[in-house]
Amino acid sequence: MLAEGFEDEDKWLAEGIAGIQHNAFFMHRALDENNLRDALKYSAQMLSELRTSRLSPHKYYDLYMRAFDELRRLEIFFKDETRHGVSIVDLYELVQHAGNILPRLYLLCTVGSVYMRCKDAPVRDVLKDLVEMCRAVQHPIRGLFLRSYLSQVSKDKLPDVGYEREDGESNGVMDAVEFVLQNFTEMNKLWVRLQQQQGPGRIREKREKERNELRDLVGKNLHVLSQIEGVDLEMYKDTVLPSVLEQVVNCKDELAQFYLMECIIQVFPDEYHLQTLETLLGACPQLQPTVDIKTVLSQLMDRLSNYASSSTEVLPEFLQVEAFTKLSTAIGRVIEAQVDMPLVGAISLHVSLLTFTLRVHPDRLDYVDEVLGSCVKKLSGKPRLDDNRATKQVVALLSAPLDKYNDIVTALTLSNYPRVMDHLDHETNKAMAMVIIQSVMKNNTYISTADKVEVLFELIKGLIKDSDETTEDEVDEEDFNEEQNSVARLIHMLHNDDPEEMFKIICTVKKHIMSGGPRRLPFAVPSLIFSSLRLIRQLQGQDGDIVGEEVPTTPKKIFQLLNETIEALASVSSPELALRLSLQCAEAANDCDLEPVAYEFFTQAFVLYEEEIADSKAQVTAIHLIIGTLQRMNVFGVENRDTLTHKATGYSAKLLKKPDQCRAVYACSHLFWVDDQDGIKDGERVLLCLKRALRIANAAQQMANVTRGSSGPVTLFVEILNKYIYYFEKGNPQITSSTIQGLIELITTEMQSDSASALPASDAFLTSTLRYIQFQKQKGGILGEKYGPIKVHIPA
């Protein structure tokens, strides 16, 4: 039944439009003939079509617009008294004799709009008369459109600045304001009454939509008010705003309250909002709990923010009216009043307030911290956020200061910042920590005090420590590596030129990263070690024997810390990394001339090599690192150096594969010949190492012959030959031309004995070596003379 009624609306609308067109035709003919009597008769019949109650608001609007267009023509006819021969005063009385109330009032509004243009017309009385008589129509839709017509035809005739009555008794601007306010109030009542006509289900939804489409009819009254020049700040503050807000609050309708609050904010000037902030905000807690107040307040704060950024001259006004305090108080009251407001709504309000604060008062960090503190109060007592929308709002809240200041140091001074982060779930907390680190890196921000480092690491603790909620299986390996690499990069951004403060920073970082568990240490420890080594080199030369009330930071103190850190790293299955870092520390101790410290780190490296590194490839890499580092050390006395050198050569000879043994042993020869002015130069031990390498290479050849039936490549022999040549040129007396000649012949014989197994790489290597000798001979000079006795035959 209801569905059929809705389907019939199009038919009823068509009938109504046909009726308007039919009567409009006869009205036009009467106007052309200047026949006032017939014009009024047919216009009244035409307007009677608007008396229908069968149309929805949307369909009724279409019908109304047809009639409105015809009334414009009638208004033009009424203006020309010479055409109809009746004075406008008599015409105003005449149209009141129309039979039906609705056509009578439309005609009265039309004549009244013409009447108000007349000189010495009683505008105040006409306005009062029209707005009062329109009360006769109480049907919501018919009354709403009638008053909309009244507003439309009168808005350009309202008395404004410069208007004066001859009797001087009336304030024209106040008359206009009272008229518009009264019309607005009545229209809003009619609009709200439409809600009571709604039925259940689908029809209700349709009516709600149609009612929403009619809201502009009501809102236009506020726009008319804002266009009256005589409405200055004082009148707006004393009359306009209180009256409008009274109607908004009293109507107790969710849709009306939300829309009208939006209208107030949009149509009136920013300056008026600022000066009447307390009044406007005072209405917010009185609105219905279901009103989307966060959007209203966000729009208000956005407008005020734009007003503040438009000119620096207006900023003192914000301080004078205490805008922040009033907004903050209002938001607190709204949250208290709307007990059912979802958490996301409350946080959104804080985000808007923080955005306002950062734009209007960027220098007031106390305001920023106050907003964060207010948010903490709202979040306290609640479990960790599990609402995605609320979580996003908290992230927006925390990101706002970073985006504004581009400086994490500023955020670190906000005491409530970490307290807000504590309410995020573990994954979001990590994401926010990554945002903080990226901000530091992007803006190249250095954190220079231990206190700020402490706060910073509290903020990013989601990356440094495992959550109780997270299991190892849930962690994505790639994401985990990226997060830990970011933490490692962050450590390099912690710096202070003052050694004492820098040492405090290092101790703070160590405290935090040591609690990160075995998976995180290999990422963060190297950065900590190298930051510490940078400080050590800054302090280079201090021995720690300075006496005073407070022991200053010295390399020894830092080395103690590094030793503990590396031991912790070694205990979590990262022995290779721990060995590398031990050798780096040993080099730094060498530069500081601290022999016991350097010896301790070498001892630690050897222990790691012996007890923790089992993989043969890792052993080869480790022994070469040890040999290379030890070769550069000049701090050791004879006894300590001999001990370490003996260990290195011993481990070299115990490698699993013979070729690896050979290369490690001949590398050890450099431990006995350091090419510095004061470096060790023990030619005999160099020769012993090279001979031992030859024996191992020979054993490797024999093993190859047994296993593969051929002597194998001679690359090892050529490598050893190059070592002989190196020491020969450096002046090692134990390496003679005859020694080199014998080795060349040995290699040549080996290659000829089993040419099938020779590799092109070995051949090319040997050929290049022989050509080098030939080149030195031809070059002449002292070196050429040394090479003179050596005979080489370069194969074609």
TrEMBL record:
The cross-references to InterPro entries, in alphabetical order and at most eight, read: ARM-type_fold, Vps35, Vps35_C
* Membrane topology according to the record: Peripheral membrane protein
GO cellular component terms, semicolon-separated? endosome membrane; Golgi apparatus
Where is the protein localized?
A: Cytoplasm; Endosome membrane; Golgi apparatus, trans-Golgi network membrane; Prevacuolar compartment membrane
Keyword RNA-binding in the entry? The reply is no
Q: Tell me if Transcription regulation is a UniProt keyword of this record.
A: no
Q: Which keywords fit this entry according to its UniProt record?
A: Cytoplasm, Endosome, Golgi apparatus, Membrane, Protein transport, Transport
Tell me a GO biological process for this protein: protein transport
Instruction: Name one matching Pfam family.
Output: Vps35
Purpose of the protein = Plays a role in vesicular protein sorting.
The record's comment on protein family reads: Belongs to the VPS35 family.
Protein name per its UniProtKB record: Vacuolar protein sorting-associated protein 35
What taxonomic lineage is listed for the species of origin?
Eukaryota, Viridiplantae, Streptophyta, Embryophyta, Tracheophyta
